Amino acid sequence: MTIYDIACKAGVSTATVSRVLNHTGRVSEESRRKVEEVIAREGFIPNAFAHSLTTKRSHTIGMICPVISDANHAYPVAELTGQLRENGFEVLLISTGSYTESKRAGFASLINHQAEAAVVIGCSEDEQEAEDFRYAAARLPVFIVNGRVEGENIYSILCDEEAGACGMVKRLADMGRRQILYLYDSDTYSGHCKRRGYEEGMRRYTGEEPFTVRIVGEETSSFFQTKETVSRLLAGRPFDAVLSADDSLAIGAAKALREAGRDPVPMIGFNNTVLGRCATPELSSFDIDMKQLCRLTVRTLLDVLQGQTAPSCLKLEGKLVERASLLDFES
């Protein structure tokens, strides 16, 4: 069925059908009702590709997510998808399946599918990946959620996690803690920012050497690897507090202490996930306000697609949400 068939059945012009389908121009309520009744009765589905050739717009936003099974990635994907659809866009999602996988193929696919823009969840600090972003940005605007790559037509919306991590070391130091263990499991841009903040905090507030441990395990969850790693650490260098790059790492460390019969220590996680609120005791965690990051990403994207000037980088402050894993140690 074509718009000519719809026009005949509805008793209106093809121009009227086009305006109804494209949500443009003025159409009387009666004509709109007739067209929509025919579309519903006949099960008409517009040809999106042909429509994009006519309007020069696909109304499709591409989204690249490294590991969709990671809750820290799944949430922004869901949030962004909902907001983009509310603004009339469909989303083409590509999951690379790995933090280290090249994004070049994903960008090429989005370009071939005529996506109007690309939204990427996070990034690394690898120069080759930065070149992949610039390759894509030469063809369509690129928006990075909680990551940063400098380049024309690239827009970064992120939380200042470096300052956040530094501030959390200060919070622990103010409680008299000096031997603060830092746990992390990835070398993403976000991961590097957190680690730099922790190391700066250790220099500034404790006078002790940083004690960093990388958890090597599955990309989807490092809980069990953390428990095993921390269990081995208990026989070595002592620590009197834990700061971790993700809530699951802190929870794994707490479990290792309990199983070893050790006294608990103050603990802080990152991302303020539901895991922290389900833990016993409830975990204190740094909230990067991902919902607001997603809102600002969509707002920036809409501005850019409408030809307005937008800042290349927006950086928000997060906040520490204090729960029992800290408050129980207050004197």
List low-confidence stretches: none
Strand order of the largest sheet: 2-1-3-4-5-11
**Fourth CATH level, the homologous superfamily of the largest domain:** Response regulator
In one word, what is the shape? elongated
Percent of residues in helices comes to 40-55%
The assigned CATH architecture of the largest domain is 3-Layer(aba) Sandwich
Task: Give me the secondary-structure topology.
Blueprint: H1 3-10, H2 14-22, H3 29-42, H4 48-55, E1 60-65, H5 71-86, E2 90-95, H6 104-112, E3 117-121, H7 127-137, E4 142-145, E5 154-159, H8 161-174, E6 180-184, H9 189-206, E7 211-214, H10 223-233, E8 241-244, H11 247-259, E9 267-270, H12 274-278, E10 284-287, H13 290-305, E11 313-316, E12 319-321, H14 324-327
Parallel strand pairs: 1-2, 1-3, 3-4, 4-5, 5-11, 6-7, 6-8, 8-9, 9-10
Antiparallel strand pairs: 10-12
